[in-house]
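Quick one: structure tokens for this chain, please?
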Amino acid sequence: MGQGENLGAEPVVFLPGMMCDARIFTPQILALSKQTPVMAAALFGGETVEQIASHLLEMLPARFALVGLSMGGIVALEILRRAPARVSRLCLMATTPLAETPDQAAMREPLIISARTGGLETALQQSLPPEVLAPGAQRLEILGLVRDMGLDLGAELFVAQSRALQRRIDQQATARRCRVPTLILCGEHDRLTPVKRHEFLAELIPHAGLKIISGAGHLPSLEQPEEVTQALLGWLSVPHERPGERPVEPLIES
């Protein structure tokens, strides 16, 4: 694909992970913005994934390609559940369709208390320990950026996002109903959302592609930025529709 070639009519919306902002996608935003409109949307809007998704949908374009990393992927699935006709294609990165288990939810409580009582930096470090990234010299630099983003966003958002993750619903049915070009992307060293979880997710979504990024862990967009960018360019070049494809109605409980 040549420099400056138009990738498609819809803009690309990036949803970052917990306590991250557009900086988590800086290499991809810089590369893709030369060829198509791009935007990044932080995960504000409430203490449930449903509230965050509804808040974002009020501000997003009428139709868009959607990239979600970690918690951003969880919110992306909820956006797909609520407004499938607005999502032209989907990329889920370092994420899961599953609800949080009671044990996982309970492990967040000490971190919430820490963030509320002046220990946000400690809570951020415990939420993303070094071993979830691939080993290498860049690990400390990336963790420093994650810390800076989290401190900039503040303790109140840490608590809200933690509550949203604790309360999130299972999205396997949403994944099965997905009918747009989909890329599942995972770092080979990701210990938070391992490769097997992404293989499972790729099996749920009809015709989804799976890309495992060598030399990356939970934040492949920063750990192996060029490989992730190339994967996204390939995903954006996939035709929108397949023969016989029908629009999918929103899957929201009455």
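The first strand starts at residue 12 and ends at 15.
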